[in-house]
């Protein structure tokens, strides 16, 4: 795991974390994206909440008319800048990064999270999934608090498991005789 990071994020952070991992596999040891409103599959399709699958993300996102069919919270992705990167394919080596994909089973994003995790599995990635029984962003809602706590606890377990199986890092040199 030398010089590699563990990466996670929720909602837009989930969007960032999985795309960063796919684009920079040399930097990422393991990734746990959660409840993203959009996902880019290994074959370059874009999965968008309430829109489903888009085969040509660049053309779709560059057209502001398409924003009308997406939730208001996703309007910011319909820009030429995002359009250029939303469908980029993963870099070589990305298939070696372990993934934990999480989304609340009551979240409007659940179906696309499930499709994303399946697309990773179909492409040969190592994928774990967890589906706590929560709607999106329900951390402060009393009736979902215990279930929402599964996000950080499952991520920690996943990162502990993936780092435990990583090759041990050599201790730093301490001097000529090995004494400090």
Give an overview of the whole structure:
The chain is α/β, with parallel strands linked by helices and 180 residues long. 31% of the residues lie in helices and 17% in strands. It contains 6 helices and 7 strands; from the N terminus they run βαββββααβαβαα. Strands 1-2-6-7 form a 4-stranded parallel beta sheet, sandwiched between helices. Strands 3-4-5 form a 3-stranded antiparallel beta sheet. Strand 1, helix 1 and strand 2 form a beta-alpha-beta unit. The C terminus is likely disordered.
Principal-axis shape: globular
Q: How large, in whole angstroms, is the Cα Rg?
A: 18 Å
- Proportion of residues in extended strands: 15-25%
Helix/strand/pairing class, anyone?
Answer: alpha/beta
Order of helices and strands: EHEEEEHHEHEHH
Largest sheet: 4 strands, parallel
Parts with pLDDT < 50 across at least 5 consecutive residues: 170-180
Number of separate helices: 6
Mean pLDDT: 90
Distance between the termini: 26 Å
**Strand neighbour order, sheet with most strands:** 1-2-6-7
Helix content: 25-40%
The number of E-state strands comes to: 7
